[in-house]
Amino acid sequence: MKRLIKYAVLAFVVAVVTHLATVLAAPYVLMDVAMARVSKADGINHWTHPPRTTETSRKVVRPSPDLAYSACVYDLDGGPVHVTASAWDDYMSVSVFAHNSDNIFVINDRQAPQGVDMIIVRKGEPHPPGAALVVESPSRRGIVLQRRVAPTQERWEAANAARRHDICEQLKS
Amino acid sequence: MRSAFAVFAAVLVGIAAGFGSAWLVLDNGQLLSRTEYDYWFGNEKAGSTAADPYTRGIIAKIGLLALNRSETIYFHRYKDQDGRQLREGCVYEMSGGNLPARWWSITAYAGDDFLPVNGDGAYSVDATQLQRDADGRWRVRIAAERGDAANWISTRHAGSFNLALRMYNPDAGARDDVSTIPYPSITRLNCSEGHA
Known about the structure:
The structure holds two protein chains of two kinds. Chain A is of the alpha+beta class.
């Protein structure tokens, strides 16, 4: 009986540790999956402009069919990453997500009516000279996401045209 | 030898129980620690760097890449007016007025947290496309068939589904106190055989 209790306690302790480890690791694992899916077509440090969101959009859970999304997986290993997003005449935002899935930065069209032009650097690293907007990322990798309100096919096509020249690339020295 | 096997078995059971219980929690958006109004629930820490590990994990599982509350307020709904799970086999009426945000939308998701696969292209309603009454109020039919509804969200092939309310650039009052938001009401009108 005593031995049985010993094994039950062991199983309980392992269960608690595994439970907590899974909860803590889940955001990183899910972000890894999302980053792999997003960067599959166009690679790292490059905007991906997916087609209009429909029932076949299955890269990231709970997509909104009323938004035109663009995503870029950033990797700061080679230095800062330069991100631009052109202006839009309705709600638009550019947001940055760290590896643990936290939304570490967001800016919208009201705050940047001429469009967004920003540099992502690793937290603690020097800011590039002359950069007006610098975002410090606590992680080496993460996702930049662009949202533009585009609830109709016509608006989606306009958004698709607007974002065509947007940049997400390693900063040229 | 027997004792080593018992230790191995206990560790295996522990790992399975720990992983399984964690996944059950992460997979159940309804367990999100939350504020709730008329079965609409949300979490002010969604997307925030101040989120606790469970909130961060659940959001990552059911709403990865959610924005923080200063930018967007998200609320979710899984139940009708009497607390019964929303189901494909039932017809619901959702009604409301203008919501305190620059732009908002309400979208249906199937149990896998993706848009229902039905080819209807009627996944959502949004503030710019809704047909409204003269007084600005609106009604949406949430059902597998459109019928003669002006506004429709299709739940065909959605199974047990849920709704997501997104409010982008919410007004200061809503941001400061989400209890002031006039949440849309949802009423179950009827269900087909086997879905009572």
